[in-house]
């Protein structure tokens, strides 16, 4: 499948990430598409994803702290707001309907693949700058956008999940984040950012985060 249009950096990083297809076409994703992913596996994934989102929101808050312009600060803080007030309560709701109440969800023991991924992203932000954070965060945001687009209209028991990411609102967010990243690169590295030595290092960060997304799906299949 051709890459969705989420900006120039995404197009280049995606092409250079060896495990991009292993992430976006993982067996977990295919089982969501076919609709035969066991419910227990999905709930195990959702519980871990709730913990993931806590740290992901922290990483976006760190991005707000490392922002260089008002537009960057607005984009990062809006993402924190959306995560904390929409995406996380949605996980709480879905789990509650499946009999996992809030205290049980809060008591979720973090899987090693989850720890590895979230702390990798946070460390990129602690030791690096806004660009390091964006390169580490991009596979998560934009990969789900690509998966949503490919799975759109599949139907089945996971259609709500699929259509959330296939929908216009989430696709618009992916375009905005792609634009934010291209703008952040130009602002810090100049107009020839794609040819700068820093760009290869950022591509490696993107590839590592992609590899950790593969591990997260695999944890979803293995661990329930
Ligand atoms: C393991 C894992 N990777 C990616 C996402 C997708 N995601 C995480 S936060 C967010 C909102 C925008 O930042 C989206 C779409 C997820 N839920 N879990």
Automatic annotation (TrEMBL):
Function as written in the Swiss-Prot or TrEMBL entry: Catalyzes an amino-pyrimidine hydrolysis reaction at the C5' of the pyrimidine moiety of thiamine compounds, a reaction that is part of a thiamine salvage pathway.
EC number(s) stated in the UniProt entry for this protein: 3.5.99.2
Record carries keyword DNA damage: no
Stretches assigned to the Thiaminase-2/PQQC domain: 13-222
Protein's recorded name: Aminopyrimidine aminohydrolase
Residue ranges the record marks as coiled coil: none
UniProt xrefs under NCBIfam families: salvage_TenA
Organism per entry: Roseinatronobacter thiooxidans
Biological process terms in GO annotation: thiamine biosynthetic process; thiamine diphosphate biosynthetic process
InterPro entries, sorted: Haem_Oase-like_multi-hlx, Thiaminase-2/PQQC, Thiaminase_II, Thiamine_Salvage_TenA
CDD domains: TenA_C_ScTHI20-like (cd19367)
Catalytic activity: thiamine + H2O = 5-(2-hydroxyethyl)-4-methylthiazole + 4-amino-5-hydroxymethyl-2-methylpyrimidine + H(+); 4-amino-5-aminomethyl-2-methylpyrimidine + H2O = 4-amino-5-hydroxymethyl-2-methylpyrimidine + NH4(+)
Keyword flag Ubl conjugation: no
Pfam families per the UniProt record, alphabetical: TENA_THI-4
Keywords: Hydrolase, Thiamine biosynthesis
Record SUPFAM superfamilies: Heme oxygenase-like
Molecular function via GO: thiaminase activity
The organism's place on the tree of life at top rank: Bacteria
Pathway(s) the chain acts in: Cofactor biosynthesis; thiamine diphosphate biosynthesis
Any single GO CC term annotated in Swiss-Prot or TrEMBL for this entry: cytosol
Family of the protein in this entry: Belongs to the TenA family.
